[in-house]
C-alpha cells in the first residue's frame, strides 16, 4: 500500500541528528551481537562505548522484534558479581531473499541473519527481457519461501553487474544483458510485496565481507569482481563508496597493457574483455579443452590434470593480479578481496595473482570468503546490509 508523506518538521536539525545517533547506536549494538555473540550486555557496552542502560534498551527492543534472544547458558563474570544471561542473534525466525542476475542465469536464494544460504535455485534465462527475467526471479523466490513456511522474510536484496543505482533501485545500464534504466525495485516490489533493496554486486560483496567474511574489522577493503562482468568496489571505515548515481567502481574499460581482445567500445585490450569468463571459455574451446560456455568446466579440466586449462587459468589470474596492483597503487587498501574462479578454486592461481601483486602486498590479498555461494550471498547481502545499518527500521514491525 502507498504510504502518505510525513509532515514537515519545525526544527529538523536536532531531530535528524537524534535519529542518526539512534540508528548508529542500534547498528553497532546489533553488529556486536553478530560478531561476538553469545555476549554479555556489559561486554557490548564496553565494546561500543555506549552506556549499559542504552545497550539494555536496544537489546530489549531487538528481543521484542525477534532479532536476538537470551542464551540458555548462564555465564559467570571473572570477578565478583552475579552470573548473567548473554544475548545472541536469533537466526531461526527471519530470512532475506536474494536475487542476483548474471549474464546466463539468475540466482535466487534465502539467507539467514548470519548471511548463510538456507535455500537457493538457479533460473536460466529464456531471453533477457527485464520484465521476464525479474518475473521469473520473483516466482522462484516465492517457491523458496513456500518451502520455508516457518521463516518470515524481512525483504529482498537484488544485485547485478554493470551500472546499478542503489538510491533509485535501478539498473542504469548492463551492456551484456541489454538493460537500460530498468526499475528493479519497483518491479520486484510489486511482484513480491516485500521491501526491495538494490545494489551492484561488487559493492554487495564488500558488504558481505564486512559483515560475515574474513575482511570483518578491516579499515579499508578493495573488492575486484571478475566474471563475465568486471567491476570493483572500495570501502573505508564501514562505508562503501558509491559516487554520483552509484557509478563508482566502473573499471570495465581500463586499458590492459599488451591486451589483444577487441572490445565493443571500439578499443582493444579493455579490462573486461581481457578478463571476461566469456573470453576464458572461448580460448578454452579453441584449445579443445571444453566445448561449452561454463567456466567451471575449465576449472574441472584443470583439476583433472589438463595442462592447457591450468595455463589458461593461471594466465587469467596473473592479469587479474596486474589489475589488483594498479588499483592498490591508487587506493592503498588494507585488504583486497578477489572474486575470480581460478583464485577461488586453485592454489596455483592464487599464487600467480599474488606474485603479480608483489611480495610486500601479497598477504593482504585473498579470495572471496563465500566460494561456494558467492552469487547467492551477493543478492542477499544487499538486504542484510540494510538490516545491520538500521535494524529498527528494517525490522518486520516497521515494514
UniProtKB/TrEMBL annotation:
Listed InterPro entries: ATPase_NBD (IPR043129), ROK (IPR000600), WH-like_DNA-bd_sf (IPR036388), WH_DNA-bd_sf (IPR036390)
Protein origin, superkingdom: Bacteria
Pfam entry (one): ROK
Membership in a protein family: Belongs to the ROK (NagC/XylR) family.
This protein's name: ROK family protein
Amino acid at each position: 500500500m502507498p504510504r502518505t508523506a510525513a509532515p514537515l518538521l519545525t526544527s529538523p536539525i536536532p531531530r535528524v541528528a537524534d535519529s542518526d545517533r539512534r540508528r548508529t547506536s542500534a547498528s553497532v549494538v546489533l553488529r556486536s551481537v553478530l560478531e561476538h555473540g553469545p555476549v554479555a550486555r556489559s561486554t557490548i557496552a564496553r565494546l561500543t562505548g555506549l552506556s549499559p542502560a542504552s545497550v539494555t534498551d536496544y537489546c530489549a527492543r531487538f528481543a521484542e522484534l525477534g532479532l536476538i534472544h537470551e542464551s540458555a547458558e548462564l555465564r559467570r563474570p571473572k570477578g565478583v558479581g552475579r552470573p548473567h544471561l548473554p544475548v545472541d542473534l536469533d537466526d531461526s525466525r527471519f530470512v532475506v531473499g536474494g536475487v542476483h542476475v548474471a549474464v546466463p542465469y539468475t540466482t535466487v536464494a534465502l539467507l539467514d541473519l548470519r548471511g548463510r544460504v538456507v535455500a537457493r535455485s538457479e533460473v536460466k534465462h529464456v531471453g533477457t527481457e527485464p520484465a521476464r527475467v525479474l518475473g521469473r526471479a520473483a516466482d522462484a523466490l516465492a517457491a523458496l519461501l513456500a518451502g520455508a513456511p516457518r521463516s518470515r522474510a524481512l525483504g529482498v536484496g537484488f544485485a547485478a553487474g554493470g551500472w546499478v543505482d542503489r538510491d533509485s533501485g535501478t539498473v542504469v545500464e548492463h551492456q551484456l544483458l541489454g538493460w537500460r534504466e530498468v526499475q528493479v525495485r519497483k518491479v520486484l516490489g510489486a511482484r513480491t510485496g516485500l521491501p526491495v533493496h538494490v545494489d551492484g554486486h561488487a559493492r554487495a560483496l564488500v558488504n558481505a565481507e564486512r559483515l560475515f567474511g574474513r575482511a570483518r574489522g578491516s579499515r579499508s577493503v578493495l573488492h575486484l569482481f571478475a566474471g563475465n562482468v568486471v567491476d570493483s568496489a572500495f570501502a573505508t571505515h564501514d562505508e562503501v563508496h558509491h559516487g554520483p548515481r552509484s557509478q563508482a567502481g566502473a573499471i570495465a574499460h581500463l586499458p590492459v597493457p599488451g591486451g589483444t581482445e577487441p572490445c565493443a567500445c571500439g578499443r582493444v585490450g579493455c579490462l573486461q574483455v581481457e578478463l571476461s569468463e566469456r573470453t576464458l571459455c572461448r580460448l578454452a574451446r579453441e584449445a579443445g579443452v571444453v566445448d561449452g560456455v561454463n567456466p567451471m568446466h575449465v576449472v574441472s579440466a584443470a583439476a583433472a590434470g589438463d595442462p592447457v586449462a591450468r595455463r589458461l587459468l593461471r594466465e587469467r589470474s596473473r592479469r587479474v593480479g596486474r589489475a589488483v596492483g594498479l588499483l592498490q597503487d591508487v587506493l592503498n587498501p588494507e585488504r583486497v578481496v578477489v572474486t575470480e574462479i581460478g583464485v577461488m578454486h586453485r592454489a596455483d592461481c592464487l599464487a600467480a595473482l599474488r606474485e603479480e601483486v608483489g611480495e610486500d602486498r601479497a598477504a593482504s590479498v585473498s579470495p572471496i570468503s563465500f566460494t561456494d555461494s558467492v552469487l547467492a550471498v551477493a543478492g542477499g547481502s544487499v538486504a542484510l546490509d540494510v538490516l545491520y545499518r538500521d535494524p529498527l527500521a528494517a525490522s518486520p514491525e516497521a515494514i
